Amino acid sequence: MKLKKLVPAALSLALVLSLAACGSPSEPSGSTPPDTNPPATGSAVPGTEAPAADDSLQKVLDAGKLTIAAEGNWVPYVYNEDGTGELTGFEVDIAKEICSRLGVEPDFQISSSWDPVEAGMDSGRYDCIICGVNPKPERQEKYNMSIAYAENPFCLVVAGDNEEITSFADLAGRSCANALNSTAGDLARKAGAELSDASLTAAMDLIVSGRADATVNNVAAVEEYMKERPDMNVKIAAIYEPEEGEEWIIQSAVAFQKGADTLTEKVNEILQEMIDDGTCYDLTVQYFGQSVADSTSIYQK
């Protein structure tokens, strides 16, 4: 009787041991096997974050406007029309055409001098700068820069009776009135001049009063100023000739926030269309004359 009772118990114990042996020796009973499949393509690896998508273009489209910084009182680039006060100029018209093709409105933010324009851009208040911005290497590192859409040669201006300064080489040790962070200021500094911060209008006053020896600015802006102010005793002493490989010095481009790639790419497409269909050429003729437009290398096909 005792043997009959022990047989079923022994069989039950053998069955339990047999079932336990069928499992993985490294997995405790009731555990969930680890997922050995690799993560799906595009999924984030645990402990890392995917880079944020660039939505700079979509933000502008959603806002319905492009916030544009520029320096005002810069005839014929950015200025207010006499009588009406309407903002106009070559750069203004370039900006308006870009916005029209983007399908948004231009939101101009105008400063009285150049340095606040860059300061506002650096603080993230603007989408871009459209104001004859020179795509120098330092700016290309700091901002996204568009393709060039215009060329603006620089000139050296002195008092009408100044016979000592006849070239950029003569600026060494001289006082030059210029925006400190501008390309024109860089050219004067490179020539050895000592700079004092001033707009074009203020620079002309300083030269005439004998408080500055010279200023450097765009040829078109200086010629326009001299036409409007024939009473000012100033003259163009020299035209700056870029060295080979430095043609960018006289080029104009749009500056965007660094990393705003989708917005930059779209505006590049628009600017190329404007060059190809003659829009940039026609605006250059309107504001600077036929000879300037015909001599602009980026318009040559």
From TrEMBL:
Gene3D superfamilies: Periplasmic binding protein-like II. Residues 24-34 have a biased composition (Low complexity). Its main location: other. Keywords: Signal. Belongs to the bacterial solute-binding protein 3 family. InterPro entries: SBP_3_CS, Solute-binding_3/MltF_N. It is found in: Cell envelope. This is Solute-binding protein family 3/N-terminal domain-containing protein. Residues 65-291 form the Solute-binding protein family 3/N-terminal domain. Residues 1-20 form the signal peptide. One of its GO terms (cellular component) is cell envelope. Residues 24-52 are annotated as: Disordered.
